[in-house]
Amino acid sequence: MKKVTFLALHLSYGGIEKCICDAANLLCNDYDVEILTTYKMIDKIPFKLSNKVKVTYLTSIKPNQREFYNALKHFRLIKAFKEGLKGLKGLSIKRNTMIEALKNSNSDIYISTRDYFNKLLGKYGKNIKIGWEHNHHHNNKRYINNLTRSCKNLDNLILVSKDLYKYYDNLFKSKNMKCKCVLIPNSIDEVPAKENKIGKINLISVGRLSKEKGYLTLIDVFNEIHKTNKDIKLNIVGDGKQYNLIKTKIDKYNLNDNVILHGFQKPEYINKLYKDSAIYLMTSYTESFGLVLIEAMSSSLVPIAFDCAEGPREIIKNNYNGYLIKNRDINKMANKVIEVINDVKLLKELSNNAYNTSKEYLNTNFKDKWIKLIERK
């Protein structure tokens, strides 16, 4: 039996981490699957992971960027200096432990999930070496160049969207690179039973509370919705640097009774919120694929997103399973939410189509692509 090894930074909460676990589950009945991960951030992995999958933690340390920047922010220079030294030592440990693991590994196929690991894999790995890119470049030339250089000694690079595949495939070919691009979309491991959303009016959005996710705009959108319907609630799940800014805007609009910030939550908690919601809102400026959209649609939610985000454009079919709003138009998004909530027939039709679309992204539908890549067919 061939051995497949995934290289991960950690297995805590995160989209990449869920994808790693899902892929490992998908392959573990046909291959000996292992995950080499640098950090153990939490005691229990938050995603389903088969007991057939071996997880090896390479260090006992944890990253300290937050502590370092917090010390700088508050001008605690001695603390910042100590955290800086600790961080440098941690980077050395991170590099050396992965190099040692690669040198001692007897795996047949390696799948790296970060450009940093791509470089180490290309230099120290043996046999088949594959990268797996989940992020959109957003036309950032530095990011593109870093990723391209990291793939120099890899056999393949997996891309999760058609847009990314087309871009990097053309780029790599223009540079006559050995590394060949492969399209394998992100996927979900299961689709729950179809739910009836008639009569439900709650809204939900899940993700990191950072600038690129556009949550400040989301509060503006909800404020317009609230002017029309005082009973609608918006659940926001996630945490991040903009938490306080978002909370301040909620206070400014006096929406504390209608907008709930749940922080980081486990999938089971999020699934319960999905059951009580009718519409998933995405106000991201950029989004490489939008796996969270697929997860929401599998719970029969209607997705409404701004069309500037690349991922939703591949998933949402306008007027069929959801809506794409042009020009980040706050009023148009708000009006579309109100229209769907108030039209029982429309809500039912969109919900059914969203649910059926999610089935197309079951990971079993892409298993053949993984097998073909691994077996080099």
Brief descriptors of the model:
single chain, 377 residues, alpha/beta
Query: Overall pLDDT, averaged?
Result: 93
Rg: 22 Å
Q: Total number of β-strand segments?
A: 13
Major sheet: order of its strands? 3-2-1-4-5-6-7
With helices defined by DSSP (H or I, 4 residues minimum), what is the helix count? 14
Q: Residue share in helices?
A: 40-55%
Taken as a percent bin, the fraction of beta residues is: 15-25%
Shape: globular
Q: List the secondary-structure elements in sequence, H or E.
A: EHEEHHEHEHEHEEHEHEHEHEHEHHH
- Sheet bearing the most strands, described? 7 strands, parallel
Question: Separation of termini?
Answer: 17 Å
Low-pLDDT ranges: none
Structural class: alpha/beta
Overall description:
- This protein is of the alpha/beta class.
- It is built from 14 helices and 13 strands.
- Helix 11 (310-315) links the parallel strand 12 (302-306) and strand 13.
- Helix 7 packs across helix 12.
- The model has no long low-confidence stretch (mean pLDDT 93).
